């Protein structure tokens, strides 16, 4: 990111004595982009929470209704045999994505403080969630958890007001699309709080192109309104096969 002409490193900017007092006890994001119209924070997922799945399943192995398993099997095949399988699945989902929620809440605070430090009123905030190799964090899992907190109307899970967009970049999975070779999925999630953002689209396209160019891959756009449309798109682990020459971008608004 430091190599692109439209990006300013916030750490470098804060070396200026001008911001010494305003940055005291404040958190900050990573970059200011496009003449400070856009604030970007990058969160890389580095810790694999797969062990939490086994920990939860181990609690139920001695139950009489727990199915006999020979070798490896899909988690959902186990849970569908248990009367409380849906509840267990929700608990597992909550536990494995706890770090994702923590990162989102941290970014919310970082955006508030960054706007204060640099006196940015109209800037839009973009959280980038990068998953390079953690297989359990499929695009569906990440999107479900991030949407829950970005768009929630529940008192138990208050909506985060200062994250305008979340850009999910998954290099751990491939997107399988008819007539398009295996591709890295790029998913943009918009907060329902954001009203005026027309100028953001061309800037984001430029940002995506830079990411694609960095990876040495072309960019293919698929615009859609939800994860369910079209239904013939699926994801699979990138460990099965090396990615081909296409990055496939998915953009839609949160519900």
Order of helices and strands: EHEEHHHHEHEEEHEEE
Please give the number of β-strands. 10
Total domain modules: 1
The 3D shape can be described as globular
Q: What amount of the residues lies in strands?
A: 15-25%
Low-confidence stretches: 226-231, 243-255
Q: Give the overall pLDDT as a whole number.
A: 82
The description of the largest β-sheet is: 10 strands, mixed
Structural class: alpha/beta
Helix content: 25-40%
Gyration radius, to the nearest Å?
20 Å
What does this structure look like?
This protein has helices at about 10-15, 50-60, 75-80, 85-95, 100-120, 140-150, 200-215, and strands at about 5-10, 30-35, 40-45, 125-130, 165-170, 175, 180-190, 220-225, 235, 245-255. With about 260 residues, the chain is of the alpha/beta class. It has one domain. Strands 1, 2, 3, 4, 5, 6, 7, 8, 9 and 10 form a ten-stranded mixed β-sheet that branches. Strand 2 and strand 3 (about 40-45) form a beta hairpin. It is globular and about 65 Å long. Mean pLDDT is about 80; it is low at about 225-230 and about 245-255.
Question: Outline of this structure?
Answer:
The protein has 255 residues and is an alpha/beta fold. It has 7 helices and 10 strands.
Q: Which helices and strands occur, and which strands form pairs?
A:
Elements (H helix, E strand, L loop, with lengths): L6 E3 H4 L17 E3 L4 E7 L6 H8 L16 H5 L5 H12 L1 H21 L5 E8 L7 H12 L14 E6 L2 E5 L2 E11 L9 H16 L3 E5 L10 E4 L8 E8 L2
Parallel strand pairs: 3-4, 4-5, 7-10, 8-10
Antiparallel strand pairs: 1-2, 2-3, 5-7, 6-7, 6-9
Helix pairs in contact: 2-4
């Amino acid at each position: 990111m430091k190599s692109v002409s439209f990006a300013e490193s916030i750490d470098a900017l804060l070396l200026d004595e001008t911001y010494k007092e305003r940055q005291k006890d404040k958190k900050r994001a990573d970059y200011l982009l496009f003449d400070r119209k856009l604030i970007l924070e990058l969160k890389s997922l580095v810790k694999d929470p797969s062990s939490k799945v086994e920990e939860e399943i181990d609690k139920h192995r001695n139950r009489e209704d727990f199915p006999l398993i020979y070798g490896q099997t899909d988690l959902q095949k186990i849970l569908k045999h248990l009367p409380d399988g849906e509840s267990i699945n929700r608990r597992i989902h909550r536990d494995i994505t706890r770090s994702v929620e923590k990162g989102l809440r941290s970014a919310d605070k970082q955006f508030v403080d960054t706007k204060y430090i640099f006196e940015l009123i109209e800037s839009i905030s973009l959280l980038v969630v990068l998953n390079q190799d953690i297989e359990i964090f499929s695009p569906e899992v990440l999107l479900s958890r991030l949407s829950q907190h970005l768009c929630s109307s529940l008192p138990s899970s208050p909506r985060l007001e200062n994250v305008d967009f979340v850009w999910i970049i998954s290099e751990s999975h491939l997107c399988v699309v008819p007539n398009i070779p295996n591709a890295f999925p790029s998913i943009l999630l918009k907060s329902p709080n954001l009203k005026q953002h027309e100028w953001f689209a061309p800037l984001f396209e430029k940002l995506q192109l830079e990411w694609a160019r960095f990876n040495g891959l072309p960019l293919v756009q698929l615009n859609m309104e939800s994860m369910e449309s079209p239904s013939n798109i699926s994801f699979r682990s990138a460990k099965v096969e090396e990615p081909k020459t296409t990055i496939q971008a998915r953009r839609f608004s949160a519900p």
